[in-house]
From TrEMBL:
Domain GPI inositol-deacylase transmembrane: 791-1119
Superkingdom of origin organism: Eukaryota
Region of interest (Disordered), ranges: 1-107
Annotated Low complexity bias: 70-94
Organism: Sphaerosporella brunnea
Protein name from the UniProt record: GPI inositol-deacylase
A matching Pfam family: PGAP1
UniProt keyword list: Endoplasmic reticulum, Hydrolase, Membrane, Protein transport, Transmembrane, Transmembrane helix, Transport
Family of the protein in this entry: Belongs to the GPI inositol-deacylase family.
GO biological process terms, semicolon-separated: endoplasmic reticulum to Golgi vesicle-mediated transport; GPI anchor metabolic process; protein transport
EC id: 3.1.-.-
Job of this protein: Involved in inositol deacylation of GPI-anchored proteins which plays important roles in the quality control and ER-associated degradation of GPI-anchored proteins.
Entry's transmembrane regions: 117-136, 785-805, 826-849, 890-923, 960-990, 1010-1033, 1079-1097
């Protein structure tokens, strides 16, 4: 059978105006595959001679080539000047099936456009776009917390510490230290209070200290300074020092974190030195000199604060209290920098190891307390899940609390508002002033007392295990009552006061305390809309009393208050009582007009005691509480109500055993009966994931006797301390920060698991309440936004690497390098289903493997834990680093979903790059246009699009670039330059392919364009990993800080990219690999894709190095065609460049 060519496949290029055409001889199958036209020219003797064309076996891996052959190929390896002679095939020789298939593939390639897209690829892209749109729209419109922060007021004055210069620190030219003074409130200088150091966060300003410093100064002047008792107890004002870091970017750069920590330790030493003499000339000269400061850090400033304790220049015990606001303690916000990941590992390992010591003397952090305050769902900068410190610090030394839990705040705040929210600043300032004790060198109260006070101010006091003050108090009130039983309720009867002052005089109602039975079986609950205050201020007072029999030597003089309500009747009862004011829990007011928990209304007062807490304060039977006295002190009838009761814990607690499947299909339903207690607690253990959102509905019938208050709901988690209050509940959005992706396990897991709903409802309303909790599927989509934003740095690269693999497979098999779009179509149709199934199976298998093992699947990238003593030795803190970062097999669908979205994003970015390249090519063609009268062949030969510089010149340029990387520029800068150069290479390659393809869409020129374009796409997806460090470097140059980064001048991290890009600028097409060595390329790309899926989120910085290794392999393939020999090296370094050019064109 004879091989016939169509007229479409045979065309000639005229020379010097010669329009004659000649029929070329039929070539081999390889020639049919690669050559689009056979061009002939006549020599002077009339013999035909081929014009420059691409060798049929151009790009074939040939390791046995000699040095002379390599030199010859090196001198003719550009697309514009490649020449070769191909033996012709006899017309009678038949074509094999493989050759015929190659010919068909070549013809199909010539018909395919770079803009073409298969139906499957289009469908995947549309599905990805729909999923992304749904996630973003859900995040913006559904399950959104209300905003209600009020702006703080301040009058700032900043005093620069000019003496803190280069004699104290090497960073004096870059950073500055200031002392904040509130104008008209603080004394200017010298500082005489308690030192507090404010650390701004990523790109933060030292001026952000204004709200907290102003609030602390005003509260001290207006309240504390007027109470001599507080001054006598060691309370003083706070001196806020703040640091100007010139808005350093710390979230992306670990070395900057270390530099700031070093500077701050030196600043602490300087601050403490200011107090050695300032107090000697004042009335506080007898007080000890301060030996520690309080740290107040925002965002990454909290991480810098913890880093200070591991630095070599840290002074022991110079920091004992750290309060952080929206600080990502658990893990780095992004993992694009190796140093930031290592710094996090070092800090967290130190803290975990310290708190795992058996003896306090071996724990350098024994006297340190750490409080992490998180903003919640409104924080769209750092996921509030990362603020958890449960994996670092036990609850004896610190805790995590959300602003929605803090009394009198009760709202979520965003990342910046957490520093100026007036409601929050008031509470935090009072808490900081409350822990101060200048009588001690540490300037704060002992650790246990600090923790008790911080929990009192920042937690709801409804948490399990909250320490009550009542058992530690002594009787202060002698209550005298008339001897009748009308004001004593029967045992177990509920006390309800619908109005106050009905008796037109003060009146006490007694509730007998039931006998102590099984621990935790009975609770006392009291709720009122009045403030519970002692003395004559409030309308209601609650006292816990026991009968006071006068003994010898005892009398009424023992009590600070004598409350006689007997009316001078002859028979009276005396009770020794203790006030419960210190244990009052404030709750948001829930009335028919309430809308938000943070409304400006007088809060409800609530008391809650377990029965054993009312009997444990004394071993003497006569001192145990016998009555609870509710004293109505109103002398006229007024609005106000009180509800008090002793209730069985079983009646007030509902445990839901619904399964996850039942939760998804039917939800949770509970019915609160008409004779329900004041408060009901519903625990749902299956609800613990932060990726789900729910809708709560509470249906209440109309009350016949009038409703005292509307239902009040508190959703809460035991760890971290997150509570949200919903007033006037009809429906409510329920979302939480529980089990979150990529977070390490807690040091000491809490035994109470899952979401709990605490519902206060009017028990006098003889109507049941139907409570239902349904899954909000659309609202749950938005929960993925903050938790999985960084997957878009990894999963698209997974798709790109597998598409690149398809391109190399086609090139090595049939000799045609297909376009990126065609490779995407092949990947979607052939490989994507297998990828999705593999990811799903991997998630499920890892989840079950971790569930069966107590230690989980150890991460190969995790530090070994042999150095951990006791508890943490058996814990794998990096077991959630892989894949989707969760151990729950229910979320198996997330990995394939993210892969699908990654494919869609890759397709969209590919078309955006095509638009840029084609538009730039059009512009470049306009400015590089040759005269029309020139022949096509002459224009092509006279104006080759690729570099014709000598090897010597290229080596010199590359060497200088590497020298600059090693000394001045970070390798990220060189990488960005390489990306730009590669973009221009793609533009020149596309221009050349269009001008020399004769209307076809195949051939060597198009192969090279597709190859260079795919390299550019791969490099483009690595660019975001390198940009943050580049931004930090540029910022340092802007502030005139020229000290180079020691961790970003590794030549091996950029040399393969530079060599590959430089090689492509000469127009060199990568050789085909026809031996088994081609499986190395396949293995490297599969390994890159696997790493993107497994660790691309948690260790994203390694993606650069993996692609760098792949680039080195491509460089090796390029150089395998022209291995350097002694003769070649002599030619490069000793032969003049002009002579070399002449030899190259001979």
């Amino acid at each position: 059978m004879r091989s016939r060519r169509s007229s479409r496949d045979s065309s000639t290029a005229p020379e010097d105006g010669d329009d004659s055409e000649q029929q070329p001889p039929v070539g081999s199958a390889d020639e049919c595959r690669f050559a689009t036209a056979q061009q002939f020219r006549k020599t002077t003797d009339g013999s035909p001679k081929k014009s420059p064309s691409i060798s049929p076996d151009h790009g074939v891996w040939n390791p046995s080539a000699t040095g002379e052959d390599s030199a010859a190929s090196r001198s003719s390896n550009t697309l514009a000047t490649a020449t070769a002679t191909t033996p012709t095939r006899s017309p009678e020789s038949p074509l094999s099936k493989e050759q015929m298939e190659d010919m068909r593939n070549g013809r199909r390639a010539r018909m395919r456009s770079n803009w073409a897209c298969s139906i499957r690829t289009l469908a995947v892209t549309l599905i990805s776009a729909f999923v992304l749109y749904s996630i973003v729209q859900s995040y913006r419109e559904r399950q959104c917390d209300a905003k209600g922060c009020r702006m703080s007021h301040m009058s700032p004055v900043y005093l620069k510490a000019k003496d803190f210069d280069t004699e104290h620190t090497r960073f004096a030219s870059k950073y500055n230290l200031y002392l904040y003074r509130e104008h008209g409130v603080d004394e200017d200088y010298p500082p005489k209070g308690v030192p507090v150091l404010f650390i701004p966060g990523n790109a933060g300003s030292y001026r952000q200290v204004r709200p907290i410093a102003a609030e602390a100064a005003r509260h001290f002047k207006n309240v504390i300074s007027k109470d001599p008792a507080l001054a006598k107890s060691g309370t003083r004002n706070l001196d806020f020092f703040t640091v100007d870091f010139n808005e350093d970017i710390t979230a992306f750069h670990g070395q900057t974190v270390l530099d700031q920590a070093e500077y701050l330790n030196e600043a602490v030493a300087y601050i403490l030195s200011l107090y050695h003499d300032s107090r000697k000339s004042t009335m506080d000269s007898e007080l000890p000199d301060p030996s520690s400061v309080i740290i107040f850090g925002h965002s990454m400033g909290g991480i810098v604060a913890r880093t200070m304790l591991i630095m070599p220049n840290y002074r022991m015990k110079s920091i004992n209290t750290i309060i952080t606001m929206s600080a990502p303690h658990a893990r780095a916000p992004v993992s694009f920098d190796r140093q930031i990941v290592k710094t996090y590992d070092d800090i967290n390992d130190f803290w975990r190891r310290s708190f795992s010591e058996k003896w306090a003397n071996n724990n350098p952090l024994w006297h340190t307390t750490l409080v992490s305050i998180a903003g919640g769902g409104l924080d769209n900068v750092v996921p509030s899940d990362y603020a958890s410190i449960s994996s670092l610090v036990p609850d004896t030394h610190g805790f995590t609390v959300y602003t929605s839990s803090i009394p009198d705040v009760w709202l979520g705040v965003d990342h910046l508002a957490i520093l100026w929210c007036d409601q929050l600043m008031k509470v935090v300032a009072r808490a900081m002033l409350d822990i101060v004790d200048v009588r001690r060198a540490e300037q704060t109260k002992p650790r246990a007392e600090r923790m008790r006070l911080l929990k009192k101010w920042l937690l709801t006091s409804l948490e399990e295990g909250t320490e009550k003050s009542l058992p530690r108090t002594v009787p202060t009130t002698l209550l005298t009552l008339e001897d009748n039983s009308q004001n004593i309720t029967s045992l177990g009867q509920r006390l309800v006061l619908r109005n106050l002052g009905e008796a037109q005089k003060p009146r006490a109602y007694l509730m007998p305390v039931p006998p102590v039975g099984e621990p935790g079986s009975i609770k006392f609950n009291l709720m009122t809309d009045q403030a519970l205050e002692t003395g004559r201020n409030g309308k209601v007072e609650v006292l816990f009393c026991s009968v006071w029999p006068p003994k010898s030597g005892q009398g009424a003089a023992l009590f600070s208050m004598n409350m006689d309500l007997s009316g001078d009747t002859p028979g009276s009862t005396r009770l020794a009582c203790r006030g419960a004011t210190s244990d009052v829990i404030r709750l948001p007011a829930s009335t028919k007009d309430s809308r938000y928990s943070f409304d400006d209304r007088t809060p409800f007062s609530y008391l809650e005691y377990r029965l054993e807490e009312l009997a444990e304060f004394s071993e003497k039977e006569v001192d145990k509480f016998e009555f609870v006295a509710v004293v109505d002190k109103a002398d006229r009838k007024s609005n106000g109500w009180v509800i008090a009761e002793f209730v069985s814990t079983k009646d007030s607690h509902i445990q839901s055993n619904v399964s996850l499947r039942g939760l998804l299909t039917d939800g949770v339903h509970a019915s609160l009966p008409a004779d329900r207690p004041l408060v009901t607690d519903i625990n749902i253990p299956v609800i613990h994931s932060s990726l789900f959102a729910y809708k709560l509905t509470a249906k209440l019938q109309v009350c016949s006797d009038g409703q005292l208050f509307k239902p009040l709901v508190r959703q809460y988690l035991a760890d971290p301390h997150e509570s949200k209050f919903f007033v006037n509940v009809d429906t409510a959005d329920i979302n939480l920060h529980g089990t979150a992706p990529y977070l390490p396990p807690a040091l000491r897991p809490n035994h109470r698991r899952g979401l709990s709903l605490q519902i206060w409802s009017d028990p006098t309303c003889s109507s049941p309440i139907e409570v239902s909790l349904q899954m909000d599927f659309l609202g749950s989509l938005g929960r993925l936004y903050m938790r999985y934003r960084t997957v878009f740095a990894a999963f698209p690269l997974l798709a790109v690497s597998l598409v690149f693999r398809k391109q190399f497979q086609e090139y090595d098999n049939i000799g045609r390098f297909i376009s990126f779009g065609e490779g995407m179509d092949l990947f979607v149709s052939q490989s994507l289903p297998y990828v999705l199934v593999s990811l799903s199976m991997m998630v499920v298998s890892l989840s079950f493997a971790k569930a069966e093992s107590n230690h989980g699947i150890p991460s190969p990238l995790e530090k070994r834990a042999e150095s951990y003593p006791s508890t943490t030795a058996s814990m794998q803190f990096a077991k959630n680093d892989m894949l989707i970062g969760l151990q729950d097999p229910f979320f198996w669908f997330l990995a394939p979903l993210f892969a699908l979205v990654g494919v869609g994003v890759t397709v969209v970015v590919n078309y955006m790059c095509l638009i840029i390249v084609h538009a730039a090519t059009a512009v470049y063609s306009v400015f590089d246009r040759r005269p029309r009268w020139e022949s096509h062949e002459r224009r092509r030969l006279a104006n080759g699009p690729f570099s014709a510089s000598s090897p010597r010149r290229r080596i010199i340029v590359t060497s200088f670039l590497l020298l600059f990387v090693a000394t001045i520029f970070p390798y990220q800068f060189a990488y960005m330059v390489a990306c730009i150069v590669q973009l221009f290479t793609c533009i020149r390659a596309l221009k050349y392919a269009k001008e020399n393809s004769y209307g076809e869409r195949s051939g060597p020129a198009w192969d090279f364009y597709h190859y260079s374009y795919s390299i550019f796409v791969v490099m483009l997806w690595i660019l975001p990993i390198n940009l943050p460090v580049l931004v930090v470097w540029h910022h340092n140059l802007a502030v005139h800080w020229l000290t180079p980064f020691s961790s970003h001048h590794n030549l091996l991290s950029i040399m393969p990219f530079i060599l590959l890009v430089e090689t492509l600028t000469t127009g060199n097409m990568i050789p085909r690999v026809t031996t088994k060595v081609k499986y190395v390329t396949n293995f490297l790309l599969l390994g890159l894709a696997a790493y993107c899926a497994l660790y691309g989120v948690t260790y994203a910085y390694r993606l650069h190095h993996l692609v760098n290794i792949f680039a080195a392999w491509l460089v090796a393939i390029h150089f395998s065609k022209s291995r350097p020999t002694v003769a070649v090296l002599k030619e490069i370094f000793f032969v003049d460049s002009e002579e070399s050019e002449k030899k190259r064109h001979q």
